[in-house]
Amino acid sequence: MRTRRRPVPADLLLAAAVALGAAAVLHALVDGVAQGGVALAFAGLVALGQCAGPPLPGDREPAPVATAVALAYALLGPLHGLPTTHGVLQVAAVTLAGTLAGLGVQFAGHRLLAAVRHRPTVPLPGPDAAARRLVTVAFAALLFQPLYNSGVTDRMPGPAYGALLAGVAALAGLGDAVLAAAQQGSRTGLRYAAALDDQLHALLGIGSAQVATGLLLSLLAGEAGLWALPVFCLPLLLAQASFRRAAAVRATTGQTIETLARATEIAGYTTPGHARRVADTACALGRELGLGSRELTLLEYAALMHDIGQLSLVEPVPGGATALLADGEQQRIARLGSEVIQRTGVPRQVWQQVARLADPCRLADGRHDPTLPLASRIIRVANAHDDLRTAAADRPRAGLLDPVEHLRLDAGHGYDPVVLDALARLAAAATAPPAVRTGAAARRPEWPRGARGRGRAWLDAVVAGRPGGGATR
What we know:
This protein is mainly α. Helix content is 66%, strand content 0%.
C-alpha cells in the first residue's frame, strides 16, 4: 500500500518560494524591468554576497551579505534623490536572479576545486536558505513598497520615515527567524520552540548585523547613490569572518573533547565506543525533551567526558559500568571527573553537569531537587542504559531485564521519571515498522517523521556504536 508523506514546513516554504519566483519571473517577462541598471547592480551584489564564502555552521545564514543587499533593495525608496518604481515582484525577481547566479558560480568553483584537489571540499549550501531569503525579502517589500509607491512615505518627516524602515527591517528579521526555526526543526528533529529559541539568539548576533546593514544600505543609497552599497557591505563581511573564526575555535574545542573522551577507552576503563554511544543517546533524549542547539552541544560535551573520573581509580570498574556501583562511589567519580574537566577550559555548565550526574533526583524529604541540571539527569540515564545494554549483550542468556524496564525500578530516586519516559518513547518509536512504499520509492524504507523518526535515528546511532565495534557519529 502506498502511504502519503505529510508535508513539513521546510517543504511548504520551498514550494512557496518556487511559486513566488515563478510569479516574479513572469512579471519581469511580461511587464519588463523598471530601472534596469539599478536592478542589475543589486542583483550583481546579491550574487557577489552569495559567493562571499562557505556557510556559517550551526544552521546560520550562509550568505548574510546577499540577504542584506536584497533587503536593502526591498526597502529602497528614492535613489540619490530620484524616485524608484520597482515593486514587490521585481524585488523578488532581482533577489532570485542574484541568488541563482551566485549559486551557479559557487557550484562551478566547487567542482573545479574538487577536480584540482582530488578530494571533497566544503559542502555547498542547500536550497533552504535561498528559499527563506526570497520569501523574507518579498515580505519586507510587501510591507514597504506599496506605501512608497502610493506616496504615503513622501508626506512623512525624516524620523518617521526612518522608524518605518527600521520597523519593517525588524519584522523581516523576526520573520526570517520564524522560518529558519521551522526549517531547522524539520531537518534536525528539534522541537519548534527550541529551534525558535536558537534562531532568536542567532538574530542577536549575525542576524542583527544583517538587518542593520540592509536598513543602512537603503538609507545611504537614497542619499549617496549606488556606490555606497559595496562600501557599507564591508562591516558585514568582517562580522561574517569573525563569526567563522569563532566557529572554527568551537570546532577545535569539540575535537579536543572527543580526543579526551577516548582516554578512558584507551586506558581500558570503559568499553570501546561507550562515550560516543552515551553522547548519542543523551542528545536524542535532549531533543526529545526540547533542548536547543546550544544546550545540546553542552550536553554532548558533558556526556563525552562523563567517565573521566574513572582515571583516578586504582582498579577499573568491571566493564566500566559505573551505573552498577553504589551511589556514593558514583558521586565520587563524578566529582573527580568534574575537577579534571574544569581545567580544560570548557564552558562552566559542562563540568557542573558532570559533577551532579550521579546525584539523586529527590531530596531527603522526597521533594524534587530543583538544583539538579536536566543535562545531569539525562546523562545518568543514558550512561546506565548503555551499561545495562552492554551487560545484556555480554550475557545474552542470563535473562536480564530490558534496560528501560530495569531503570524504571529506580525511577524517582536515581533516575528522573521524565527522562525515563522520553527514553521509553525513543525505544518504542525505534521499533515501529517503517512506512511501506511502492514503485521506485520502495527501494528504501521511509521512517515516519516526528517521534518515530527521532527514535529510529537514535537507534541507528546506538547500533553503529555497538560494544567492541567502535562508534560513529
